[in-house]
Design a protein that fits this description.
This protein is 63% helix and 7% strand. It is mainly alpha-helical and 268 residues long. It has one domain (16-257). The strands form three sheets. The chain has a two-stranded antiparallel ribbon. Strands 2-3 form a two-stranded antiparallel sheet. A hairpin with a 2-residue loop joins strand 2 and strand 3 (88-91). The termini are far apart.
Length: 268
C-alpha cells in the first residue's frame, strides 16, 4: 500500500470570492429545487421528491470516507465548514452539492423512468447530466475548493471520470428503487425516503468504485490503475443499463395491470 495514502494533503491557496459565489449559488439552486418539490407535494400529493432532496443532504455524511478512498480532499482552509470526520473537512457548499448531485439528479432520472422513456431517451438524460456534472467540476476545480491528489486515472482536465460512474450508479439506483416501488411510498412511508440516497450512494460507491479504489491504494503500476478505473466505468454502464431496463419493465407491468382488460393485454 502507498505510504500516507490515508493522510490528507496540505491545504492549497483558496479563492475566497469563488467560495462565496459557489456557496451562495449552490444554496440558491437548492432553495429553488426544494420550492419546486414543495409545490409538487401540494399539487400531486406526493412528498417523495421533497424527502429525496433532504435525504440527499443527509447523505453528505458518507463523503469523508468516500474522499479517503478516492483520494479527494476538500480544502481545510474553507471559511464555511459544517463538520469534519476522519480528518476530512466538509464545506457548506458540499452539502448543497450533495442535494443537487444525489437529489435533483435522482429526481430527474426518476421522472424519466416514470414517464416510461425508452432506452435511448433514458441514456440521453444520463448523458446530459454527466455533461452538467463535468461542467460543474470544470468550474470548481480551478478554485482549489477541493482537489484530487496522487495518481488519478481517466483524468479529464483534472477530473477523474470514474467519479461519474460512482455518482450515477448511486443516483440511478435511487430512481430505480423509487420507480419499482412507487405505490409503496404513500402516507408516513414517504418519510423513509430520507434514508434512501445515503444507502444507495454507499452501494454505488463501494460496489462500482471498489476496483479503482483498491488500485489507488496499492502499489500497482499506472496501467493497472487505468484498467481498474476502466473496470469501474464499465461496471457502472452495465448496472445503470440494467436498472433502466428493470424500471421500464416495471412501468409497463403497472400500466398493463391498470388497463381495462384487467392485465390481459395483448402480447407484443
Amino acid at each position: 500500500m502507498n505510504e500516507g495514502a490515508f493522510d490528507p494533503p496540505a491545504d492549497r491557496p483558496i479563492f475566497r470570492a469563488a467560495e462565496a459565489l459557489i456557496t451562495i449559488g449552490s444554496a440558491g439552486a437548492v432553495f429553488v429545487a426544494i420550492a419546486i418539490a414543495i409545490r409538487y407535494w401540494r399539487t400531486a400529493g406526493s412528498a417523495v421528491p421533497f424527502f429525496l432532496l433532504v435525504g440527499a443532504g443527509i447523505a453528505i455524511m458518507n463523503e469523508p470516507l468516500v474522499d479517503i478512498l478516492g483520494k479527494c480532499f476538500h480544502n481545510g482552509a474553507a471559511r464555511w465548514r459544517i463538520f469534519e470526520l476522519f480528518g476530512r473537512p466538509i464545506p457548506a457548499w458540499g452539502l448543497f452539492g450533495y442535494v443537487i448531485v444525489y437529489g435533483v439528479t435522482a429526481w430527474c432520472i426518476l421522472t424519466t423512468m416514470r414517464q416510461g422513456a425508452g432506452r435511448a431517451s433514458f441514456w440521453t438524460v444520463i448523458g446530459a447530466m454527466c455533461l452538467i456534472q463535468v461542467a460543474m467540476e470544470m468550474v470548481i476545480l480551478p478554485t482549489n475548493l477541493y482537489y484530487y491528489f496522487g495518481y488519478q486515472p481517466w483524468s479529464f482536465f483534472g477530473m477523474p471520470l470514474f467519479w461519474l460512474a460512482i455518482n450515477f450508479a448511486g443516483t440511478t439506483l435511487t430512481a430505480a428503487v423509487l420507480t419499482v416501488t412507487w405505490r409503496y411510498w404513500t402516507g408516513y412511508r414517504q418519510v423513509l425516503v430520507l434514508l434512501l440516497p445515503a444507502a444507495t450512494q454507499v452501494l454505488g460507491s463501494y460496489f462500482i468504485g471498489l476496483p479503482v479504489f483498491a488500485a489507488l491504494h496499492s502499489d500497482a503500476p499506472n496501467f493497472m490503475i487505468w484498467f481498474a478505473g476502466g473496470l469501474s466505468l464499465a461496471l457502472a454502464l452495465v448496472v445503470i443499463d440494467i436498472l433502466g431496463t428493470i424500471s421500464r419493465r416495471s412501468i409497463r407491468l403497472a400500466s398493463t395491470a391498470d388497463s381495462p382488460s384487467g392485465g390481459l393485454a395483448h402480447p407484443d
